[in-house]
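Pilot study result, target chain (298 residues):
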Amino acid sequence: MALFHTMQVFVKVAETSGFAEAARQLNMSPPAVTRAVASLEERIGARLFTRTTRTVKLTEAGTRYLDDCRRILADVAEAEAAAGGSYATPTGVLTVTASALFGQHYITPILTEYLDQNPEVNVRALFVDRITNMVDEGIDVGIRIGDLPDSSFSAIRVGAVRRVVCGAPSYFAAHGVPRHPADLAKHRTIVSTTSWASLDWRFGGPQKPVVRIAPRLSVNSFDAVLAAARRGWGLARPLSYQIGQALIAGELETVLEEFEEEPLPVHVVHPEGRRASAKVRAFVDLAVERLRANPSIN
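Predicted structure:
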């Protein structure tokens, strides 16, 4: 008798505390249930139940084995569900979250491609500059920038971004290029009061210098920060993905690269694990492929 089946019979006997009731629920004959348990006991070399005319109780070995069997059967069921669902058609509403600018520039194109590929899915995107509670807010997939806390969520690393100091070529031509973070005191700086409120700019390297910035321009929109930097007015400190296209176009240049802090990882996360629905798996697979191919985060 197959081991998997005998384990199922053993668990049912333990849960019902009786061979007859287990046989009824499993649609088996009582002798077949008895033979299954006896076969399992012979295989492992230990008695699993203490039997009397009135009761069936687990032995100490049976109690330990029950926990193992339940875990193994659950893993098999999960694997079957995942494999069986891999060909299911994605349907329903998919909710995705990311930070505002990252979502706008990098996730929206993936979402529209995903919708074209999956006509039975609708998408709700939540692009906000705060940490969302994915379970409480009903979010299926999140794109997280930064180190992740320990959790039971599935997380796939797709790249990394850096915090950089940047300015326009025209600014450097007029004001010179800073060679050390301490030189920033001599330069115009632009800061956002929403996405990067701290005036302490921290750097990496052996000394890990911290520079207190005295910005001439503070705005509550990071788009405005980058617009002023592209116009050559001063220096900004965005994350590298926020200026990916501006770097490619030559509108901005980065400086002080040797003083950059360690890169921040970018992950695609979701709470469903291997039991993820077809709509989630389809989006995760597409997002991982597209983000890993994006030079702005790799």
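One observation from the pilot: The longest helix spans residues 60-85. A full batch analysis is planned for the follow-on phase.
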